[in-house]
């Protein structure tokens, strides 16, 4: 029932039509319902809607499939949103009329709407209508919407979404401006079950004040990610963080400013298990010590923070014993002393410390629980410490030593250590731009892969 060209999904003279008699006598109807459902599951939504018109049995089965389609995603081939399926009249992709016709049939079953790219829609026309004014009206049972790729949606688009979709649990937005803050507040206040909210950094600056945070339900929200925050007012963030009872994940940055009151409030949010403050601007290094109060923290991302000191890292390592993931890439003020303190994190699985001015001495004492270690660009790291870690950390599966000062000694040690592994874990080791010469290595290990 597939086709490569149509003008209207309801009527197409080029589409083959089967009569009731033809279908009854066809071999396909000798199949049971389960087999037919399996066959129909390979059809696009467009073709499923067409197949419903063949006979009552097909209609019943196809309606079951429509109810099972919960996600409208532009990259999903199930929706046939590729240009080739829509004929010459569409320049960029699917026209809104086609989308409307489809959603009138199955929009009430859609729970997830994600626009990964705008190209599937024909927005070259003078009569272009945004999918954001259509989808909320026909998909009123949405629980998740991701429109990160839409730059500064219009107020009417946000109001349409706010007035029609009140069961949203996850909202992911792209570039916003201050003029939309009132409409965003309406959207957030109308969705009392919200657990996830994100303002993406992919599309540029989000120059809102943060007042919208006051309209997020403090009883349900679990994750907030604000990735651009240059003009945000900290009072709004502080007030919001105090009322969020179950906040597990928080991202703020880049270039977000942190005063002592903000850091103290974050430190008192004991429910946090994930925190990211990339490119943060702290009032003072001492304020970072408030993060040591987050005893339940499992993942901490502090990359590109030039105010992070050895003492800060030591306090965090002594108190945040549940940490499994730590990223301190390009924190140039960290020395060997700071890395040595990380040995206290006995549950640490992932450590990313690219671009640091540290030696290999503390590397040898890192937790043997490590699975991933990246030291890209750490030019002072040599063989000895790395070899000690490789021998101890039998669960190590990724080791990036690019631009480090290691030699073939590290490769020999990795061959020997991994050859003795009984857990079947393969160590992938990147030695690009090092002073090694792997061509001289004759021995091999089944549990070692070397990349250059």
From TrEMBL:
Domain (F-box): residue spans on this chain = 28-66
Q: Which residues form a coiled coil?
A: 48-82
GO terms in the biological process aspect are: SCF-dependent proteasomal ubiquitin-dependent protein catabolic process
Q: Which residues form the F-box/LRR-repeat protein 15-like leucin rich repeat domain?
A: 278-418
Please give the superkingdom of this protein's source. Eukaryota
Q: Note whether Iron occurs among the keywords.
A: no
Q: Name one GO cellular component term.
A: SCF ubiquitin ligase complex
Protein name, per record: F-box domain-containing protein
């Amino acid at each position: 029932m597939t086709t490569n060209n149509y003008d209207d999904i309801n009527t197409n003279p080029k589409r083959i039509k089967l009569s009731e008699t033809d279908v009854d006598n066809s071999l396909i109807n000798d199949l049971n319902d389960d087999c037919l459902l399996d066959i129909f599951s390979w059809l696009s939504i467009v073709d499923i809607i067409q197949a419903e018109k063949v006979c009552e049995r097909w209609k019943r089965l196809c309606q079951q499939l429509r109810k099972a389609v919960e996600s409208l995603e532009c990259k999903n081939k199930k929706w046939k949103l590729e240009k080739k399926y829509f004929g010459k009249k569409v320049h960029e992709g699917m026209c809104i009329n086609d989308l409307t016709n489809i959603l009138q049939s199955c929009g009430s079953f859609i729970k997830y709407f994600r626009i990964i790219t705008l190209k599937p829609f024909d927005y070259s026309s003078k009569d272009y209508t945004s999918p954001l004014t259509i989808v909320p009206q026909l998909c009123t049972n949405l629980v998740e919407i991701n429109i990160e790729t839409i730059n500064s949606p219009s107020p009417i688009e946000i109001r349409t979404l706010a007035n029609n979709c009140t069961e949203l649990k996850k909202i992911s937005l792209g570039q916003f401006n201050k003029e939309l803050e009132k409409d965003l507040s309406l959207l957030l206040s109308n969705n009392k079950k919200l657990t996830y909210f994100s303002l993406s950094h992919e599309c540029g600056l989000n120059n809102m004040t943060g007042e919208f945070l006051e309209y997020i339900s403090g009883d349900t929200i679990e994750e907030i990610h604000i990735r651009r925050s240059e003009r945000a007012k900290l009072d709004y963030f502080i007030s919001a963080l105090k009322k969020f009872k179950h906040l597990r994940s928080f991202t703020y940055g880049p270039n977000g400013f942190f005063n002592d009151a903000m850091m103290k409030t974050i430190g008192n949010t004991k429910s946090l298990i994930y925190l990211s403050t990339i490119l943060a601007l702290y009032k003072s290094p001492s304020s970072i010590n408030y993060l040591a109060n987050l005893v339940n923290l499992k993942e901490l991302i502090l990359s590109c923070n030039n105010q992070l000191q050895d003492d800060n890292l030591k306090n965090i390592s002594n108190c945040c014993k549940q940490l499994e993931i730590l990223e301190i890439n390009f924190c140039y003020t960290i020395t060997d002393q700071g890395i040595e303190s990380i040995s206290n994190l006995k549950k640490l699985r992932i450590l990313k410390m690219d671009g640091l001015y540290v030696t290999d001495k503390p590397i040898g004492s890192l937790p043997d629980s490590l699975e991933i270690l990246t030291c890209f660009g750490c030019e002072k790291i040599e063989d000895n410490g790395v070899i000690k870690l490789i021998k101890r950390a039998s669960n190590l599966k990724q080791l990036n030593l690019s631009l480090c000062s290691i030699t073939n000694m590290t490769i020999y040690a990795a061959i020997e250590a991994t050859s003795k592994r009984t857990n079947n874990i393969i160590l992938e080791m990147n030695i690009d731009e090092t002073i090694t010469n792997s061509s001289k290595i004759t021995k091999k290990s089944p549990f070692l892969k070397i990349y250059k």
